[in-house]
Structures are given as C-alpha cells and as structure tokens.
Design a protein that fits this description.
alpha/beta, TIM Barrel, 8-stranded parallel sheet, 16% strand, globular, binds zinc ion, TatD/YcfH-like, metal-binding
Length: 280
C-alpha cells in the first residue's frame, strides 16, 4: 500500500543542479508524503534516474529517454549536466534503442521519455534527427508497454511541434502518454485528450494567468501536476531552485482553479498517476 498525498510526475533530481544535496532534497520530499518521477533526458540522466529510484524503497520512480534537444550538439544546460564537464558534454546523441530498452525493464521505470519534438531553437536538419529519435522511442514504448512522457515545444516562428507530435503518435503509438509542461492551445489540448493522452502543468500556473482557462478545460481525470525541477519554481518559491516538494503549490493552484478542496484534488491526481504510470 502506498501512503502519500501528492506526486510530482516530472522532475529532475537526477540533474547536476542537485549534486550537492540530492539525498536531502529527496528525503524531505518523501518525508512530507510527496512522491516523484525523475525524468531522464539522455543516457546518463536516464541511468542515474533509475539508480535513484532503486535506492529508495518507495516513492521514487524514473523515466528513460532522449530529450529532443539532446539529439543535437548545440544545447548545453549547466543545471542539467554541470559546468562543461568532460563526461557530461552536450549530446548530439543518436537514440540507442538497445540501451534504453534494457533500462526500461526496471519495474521502477514508469515511462519512456522525455521524448518528442522541440522547435524552439532548431534548424531543419536537427528537426529530422528529432523525428527519427522520437519515432524510435515510440517504438520502444510500444514494445515495453509503458507510456510516453512527451516534451513538445513550438518554434518561435509559430511552427507547430504539437501538430507533428500528434501525427507521429497517431500513426506509430500503441501506448498512451502524458504531454509534460503543456503549453499548447486549447485545440491542441483537445486533440491529445481525444487520443487518451493526459496533460501536465508546472509551477507556471501559479504566476501566468493565461493557463487558467486551459487548466479549467482539461477534464479532472486527464490532468497531472509536476514541477520540472530544477526549473520554473512556483509562487511562493520564485527565484529559487525548484524541487519536487514544491509540487504542493501547483496542486493547490490547480485545486483553486478547479474549485475543489486540496485533498480532493490530491486524490484525483493520485488516481490519474496510478492509472497512467502504474505506480505501485
Ligand atoms: Zn523535464
């Protein structure tokens, strides 16, 4: 039996930003009755996420996958991979299905990803690499019968990564998934929901008013709360490094937008997570 009140379905305590105090952060989260899913973004963070999940008896889960940004060399985020360290260089990683398939066998691995398409700072050539890596990951998810953790971001010129991800999952996917950090339109949301995909929201809903309508729009049984820690800390923790415990602020905001008691919202979110990610 699990005994927890909330779960952060998408965070990265496996990232370099937590190197100094990772175990403290995880322990205070679990002590407060909050579970977490650490999301992998390339080979190293996928492996370390699985190792973290194994280290704790319960409450810490993992996903394994290749983030679209890491299919290209250009991107380097210190919070994720540290200060230019030699073994944590920026990626240009080609998706290695064998490697991820093996990691995915672990019972604590609850999804494949984060995978998808990110057109925010890319060119045509890297988009093709992203497509190839994404389709390969959909196939691994199909094989291992685990859902997908999707990362989708439109181009600054308005190119719709949401539309392209929808096309790919319609033609390739035989499993469901969640669209993390959903920032698409209501029309995009409806198309994912119609396919049975859930949508998750971060701390941005605590300070960006434009999310209110979207959160209201997503049916109660199709929504999740997440932090995407170490990024985007919610109110009242703005300006700090984010951490999974702060998901409680996201849940509170969601409850207020949906006009529910916090405990009721938590129960709904736990049920949604258990259904999609088979948290046991
Ligand atoms: Zn993430």
């Amino acid at each position: 039996m699990n005994n927890y009140r909330a779960i952060d379905i998408h965070c990265h305590t496996n990232f370099a930003a937590f190197d100094e105090d990772r175990d403290e952060v995880i322990s205070r989260t679990l002590d407060a009755g909050v579970y977490m899913i650490n999301v992998g973004t390339q080979k190293d963070t996928s492996k370390s996420g699985v190792e973290l999940a194994q280290k704790y008896e319960k409450g810490v889960y993992a996903t394994v996958g290749l983030h679209p940004i890491h299919t290209d060399k250009s991107f380097h985020d210190e919070a994720e991979i540290g200060e230019g360290g030699s073994n944590f260089n920026s990626r240009d990683e080609v998706f290695d299905a064998e490697y991820y398939r093996e990691l995915a066998q672990d019972p604590k691995v609850v999804a494949i990803g984060e995978c998808g398409l990110d057109y925010f700072r890319t060119d045509k050539e890297s988009e093709q690499k992203q497509r190839d890596a994404f389709i390969a990951q959909v196939h691994v998810a199909n094989e291992v019968r685990k859902p997908m953790m999707l990362h989708v971001r439109n181009g600054q010129d308005g190119r719709s990564a949401y539309a392209d991800v929808l096309d790919i999952i319609k033609s390739e996917a035989t499993v469901l998934g969640n669209v993390h950090f959903f920032a698409g339109s209501k029309e995009d949301a409806k198309k994912f929901l119609d396919l049975g995909f859930t949508l998750s929201f971060t701390g941005v809903i605590t300070f960006a008013k434009e999310y209110k309508e979207l959160v209201e729009f997503v049916p109660d049984d199709m929504i999740h709360a997440e932090t995407d820690a170490p990024y985007v800390a919610p109110v009242p923790e703005r300006g700090k490094r984010n951490e999974p415990l702060f998901v409680t602020h996201v849940v509170e905001k969601m409850a207020s937008i949906k006009g529910k008691a916090v405990e009721d919202m938590q129960a709904i979110l736990r049920a949604n997570t258990e259904r999609l990610f088979k948290i046991v």
